[in-house]
Amino acid sequence: WLQAEALQRFTQALDAYADQSAADALRLLLLTGARASEVTKSEWPQFDLNRGIWEKPSHHTKQKRIEHTPLSEPAITLLRRMRPKNASGLLFPDADGRPRVTLRWHWIQVCKAAGLVTAHVRKSKRGTITRYQPTVRINDLRHSYASYLVSSGVSLHIVGRLLGHTQPQTTMRYAHLQDEALRDATNRFGAIFGAATGGKPEP
């Protein structure tokens, strides 16, 4: 998942990217922890910005069930900025007005600008060809969303609900981050105790 410094470079690369519609799709992925297909197929009637809810239809979700996902204030701000007058239809249509099939090309370009790629150089008869391979996957935006929440002390149950997990064990991949958050919490009292006792051990 994207650590703080990489996340900053990634968001700066999004701000400078030429195709701001694609950049907005990547921003929405990061701000909601949604799956890429849920974002690329999303339509304006699914979003109630007054209530701050994204109602994902069952045919868009992995579990084939309707999901009501709360939206954060930054996500709502993003959507309000994007929303045209009399909004209807797709948020991110392609040139033909159909859902974008993939964000992969844009993902590679943004990762390249953010320095999140490795370069593979190959020589051919036509010259030197350089291909760039992102060191993170687009699905790592979803992992970053979940990891930051768990690290800040949000319960695995809540994070699982936000991600649309139906099985608790699916969210357990983040359990080690929960342990770190709990350790940080208990260390806060350790610091309070140390201050109260003048740093002396308990008798």
Structure at a glance:
The protein is of the alpha+beta class and 203 residues long. Helix content is 48%, strand content 13%.
Keyword list:
single chain; 203 residues; alpha+beta; three-stranded antiparallel sheet; 48% helix; globular
Verbal overview:
With 203 residues, the protein is α+β, with helices and mostly antiparallel strands. The protein has helices spanning 4-16, 20-32, 36-40, 73-82, 104-114, 140-151, 156-163, 168-171, 175-196, and strands at 47-48, 53-56, 67-70, 117-124, 127-134. The strands form 2 sheets. It has a 3-stranded antiparallel sheet with strand order 1-2-3. The chain is globular. The termini are far apart. The mean pLDDT is 90.
Radius of gyration: 21 Å
Beta-strand proportion: 5-15%
Residue-averaged pLDDT: 90
Q: Gap between N and C termini, in Å? A: 44 Å
Helix content: 40-55%
Which consecutive residue ranges, at least 5 long each, have pLDDT under 50?
none
Query: What structural class should be given to the helix and strand makeup?
Result: alpha+beta
Number of helices: 9
Strand count: 5
Shape, please? globular
- Biggest beta-sheet profile: 3 strands, antiparallel
**Largest sheet strand order:** 1-2-3
